[in-house]
């Protein structure tokens, strides 16, 4: 079984702030980590590879630094790794990102299964996987909690829907988005690290894709535009209390009784 | 196209300034030369705030769309086992507000089998027309045939905006259909407004952090967005004035490649989004054992215990108890946060609560910006004393 897993490097912290006066984004920490939701997708992929045999490719799009995350995937057990990196891909929204990834996947080869995580912690849209599937004309399923069975033709998966757990069988090739917390992702293997060293990471640019028209990528290929960014609204009607802990506890107790969340008087 | 570097206007000082300015570290300075790497997100901070003319942005000519060819605000009618999901009603209420700006109709699209009673209900919530795809092949949710029905609705009706609930199904179906029409989709909007030219103004937290982004889809139609359950208020039902329109799909459009083998109703689970009173804990909690303290307070208030994302990532809590954009949205009558810093992504999940009380030792914590009552102090001292006082009194359910 040939599997491709899409992963992303995300900032280590979410502390990106905007200066309310100048509108300047304050620089976030430069360090990155693998998007935590992708660990579940990667673990699912590795387990499938172990069960059915085959090849696992990890794919990411991002700056050169994102190679670190691919390296981690290699140490966890991926067979090869591909980084799509090009300044022309910058500023992509969901539509342009998913288009880029669908083009990159096609350039990597043909796969039985493409597996994505639920969402990223920086974009938080949870939409890229489904859009990749649509661009590629593949069936897809979201919120996959378990891959029960796979054969040469189809895969049986369990999905976590709003009120139900649905078991369905769908044809290969297809794309699956794993739900959160569906397994315990393994740690990168020290032994593998010793074996493969830095590992081999193939880098692709726009020129390596079938569609090389820059207008279809990055900001130009995006359907949505960010008109402005601004700090969140503040609640001006707030009341702030300071004092000793005893005073504050009294204050809060008074508030809770006043609003009838707690009844005054002895039990 | 895109960012253009005007090297002749850049000296070593300007180069260093630009490199420091980029919030994503995508600009590298080498003496008086700069280069922009693949980390660039085209936020254009360097254009606006950098030395004048050093970096400019040349926009690509854009394909435009005839906005007049698309009319109306459509809501996806999500339902399960004969019941409309409440988010559908909430979105109908929001659609009515948005339609006041453009004076365009409010539509709903309803896909399923034996769903006529739901169409009637949608009409009581203000829809002008509800387009009904009613077929045995649409009985269970199957991505391919539902996407086909949804696409058929768009092709035939040409709505300008489409609002979809950010449920598990909505989050999967909306991107599928949006990509089919090569159009924009904004996830988890916390605020929606309408421009007179029918551009939908979509506001949501961005960059995972403390920033709100205002997003528009100016050159394509329809404009898709998803909105989480309980973000908006459901309107009161009234006498219907609209009508249901029966829609049909070609047989090949109803053929699914997916076979449903089993559907099991989920066991009743903890649902903090329904809780009236919530005690939420954040990273101010020093150890896992201290959850007991918060649980004690929650028990006394008849409250559900909830938490922030880091505590879920640390494995202290089940993800079902997480408040925020990547967790649940709550609309509590009272929420008390203990040691929660108040990231935008957390705030987005709870700011609709009626009374927000925050305890945090950092007077500058972001949570105090949204709290109605802020207590600057040590939760480890305040909470035990509060518990003692409540135990002296008695609590009202």
The value of Rg of chain A in angstroms is 23 Å
Overall mean confidence score, pLDDT of chain A: 90
- Poorly predicted sequence stretches spanning 5 or more consecutive residues of chain B: none
Give me the side-by-side strand order of the main sheet of chain A: 11-10-9-12-8-1-6-7-13
Helix content of chain A: 25-40%
Quaternary state of this entry equals heterodimer
The helix content of chain B is: 25-40%
Spans of chain A of 5+ residues with little confidence (pLDDT < 50)? Answer: none
Number of domains of chain A: 2
Shape type of chain B: flat
Q: How widely separated are the two ends of chain A?
A: 66 Å
Tally of strands of chain B: 22
Provide structural commentary:
The complex is a heterodimer of chains A (267) and B (397). In chain A, the strands form 3 sheets. A 9-stranded mixed β-sheet of chain A has the order 11-10-9-12-8-1-6-7-13, with helices on both faces. In chain A, strands 2-5 form a two-stranded antiparallel sheet. A two-stranded antiparallel sheet of chain A has the order 3-4. Chain A contains 6 helices and 15 strands. Chain A has 267 residues and is of the alpha/beta class. The mean pLDDT of chain A is 90. In chain A, a hairpin with a 3-residue loop joins strand 9 (140-150) and strand 10. The mean pLDDT of chain B is 92. In chain B, helix 7 packs parallel to helix 11 (379-392). At the A-B interface, strand 3, strand 4, helix 3, helix 4 and strand 9 of A face helix 2, helix 5, helix 6, strand 11 and strand 13 of B.
């Amino acid at each position: 079984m040939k599997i491709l897993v899409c992963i992303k490097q995300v900032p280590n912290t979410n502390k990106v702030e905007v200066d309310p006066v100048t509108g300047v984004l304050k620089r976030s920490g430069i360090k990155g980590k693998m998007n935590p939701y992708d660990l579940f997708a990667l673990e699912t992929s590795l387990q499938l590879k172990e069960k059915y045999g085959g090849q696992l490719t990890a794919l990411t799009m991002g700056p050169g630094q994102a190679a670190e995350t691919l390296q981690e995937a290699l140490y966890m057990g991926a067979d090869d790794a591909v980084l799509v990196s090009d300044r022309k891909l910058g500023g992509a929204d969901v539509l342009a990102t998913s288009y880029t990834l669908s083009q990159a996947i096609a350039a990597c080869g043909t796969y039985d299964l493409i597996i994505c995580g639920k969402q990223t912690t920086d974009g938080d849209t949870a939409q890229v996987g489904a859009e990749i599937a649509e661009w590629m004309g593949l069936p897809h399923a979201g919120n996959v909690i378990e891959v029960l069975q796979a054969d040469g033709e189809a895969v049986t998966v369990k999905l976590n829907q709003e009120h139900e757990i649905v078991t369905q069988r769908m044809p290969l090739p297809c794309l699956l988005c794993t739900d959160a917390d569906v397994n315990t992702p393994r740690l990168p293997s020290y032994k593998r690290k010793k074996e493969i060293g830095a590992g081999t990471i193939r880098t692709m640019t726009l020129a390596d894709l079938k569609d090389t028209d820059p207008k279809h990528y990055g900001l130009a290929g995006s359907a949505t535009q960010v008109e402005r960014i601004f700090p969140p609204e503040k609640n001006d009607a707030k009341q702030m209390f300071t004092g000793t802990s005893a005073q504050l506890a009294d204050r809060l107790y008074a508030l809770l009784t006043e609003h009838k969340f707690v009844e005054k008087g002895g039990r | 196209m895109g960012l253009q570097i005007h090297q002749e206007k850049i000296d070593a000082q300007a180069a260093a300034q630009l490199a420091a300015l980029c919030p994503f570290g995508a600009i590298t300075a080498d003496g008086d030369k700069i280069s922009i790497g693949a980390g660039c997100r085209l936020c254009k901070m360097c254009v606006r705030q950098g030395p004048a003319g050093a970096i400019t942005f040349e926009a690509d000519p854009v394909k435009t769309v005839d906005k007049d060819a698309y009319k109306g605000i459509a809501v996806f009618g999500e339902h399960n086992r004969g019941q409309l999901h409440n988010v559908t009603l909430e979105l109908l209420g929001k659609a009515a507000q948005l339609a006041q700006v453009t004076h365009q109709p409010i539509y709903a699209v309803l896909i399923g089998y034996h769903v006529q009673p739901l169409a009637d209900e949608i009409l009581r919530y203000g829809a002008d027309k509800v387009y009904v795809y009613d077929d045995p092949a649409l009985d269970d949710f199957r991505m391919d045939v539902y996407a086909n029905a949804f696409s058929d609705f768009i092709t035939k009706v040409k709505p300008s905006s489409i609002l979809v609930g950010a449920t598990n199904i909505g989050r999967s179906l909306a991107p599928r259909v949006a990509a089919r029409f090569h159009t924009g989709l904004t996830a988890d909007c916390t605020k929606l407004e309408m421009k007179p030219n029918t551009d939908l103004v979509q506001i949501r937290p961005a960059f995972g952090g403390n920033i709100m982004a205002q997003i528009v889809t100016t050159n394509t139609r329809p404009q898709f967005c998803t909105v989480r359950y309980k973000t908006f208020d459901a309107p009161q039902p009234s006498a219907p004035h609209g009508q249901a329109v029966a829609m049909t799909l070609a047989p090949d459009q109803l053929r699914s490649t997916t076979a449903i083998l089993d559907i099991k109703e989920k066991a009743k689970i903890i649902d903090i989004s329904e809780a009236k009173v919530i005690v939420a804990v954040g990273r101010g909690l020093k150890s896992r054992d201290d959850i007991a303290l918060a649980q004690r307070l929650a028990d006394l208030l008849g409250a559900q215990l909830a938490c922030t994302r880091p505590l879920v990532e640390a494995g202290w809590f089940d993800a079902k108890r997480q408040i925020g954009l990547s967790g649940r949205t709550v609309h509590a009558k009272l929420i008390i946060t203990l040691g929660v810093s108040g990231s935008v992504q957390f705030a987005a999940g709870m700011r609709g609560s009626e009374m927000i009380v925050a305890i945090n030792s950092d007077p500058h914590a972001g949570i105090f910006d949204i709290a109605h009552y802020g207590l600057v102090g040590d939760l480890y001292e305040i909470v035990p004393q509060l518990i003692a006082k409540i135990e002296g009194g008695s609590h009202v359910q």
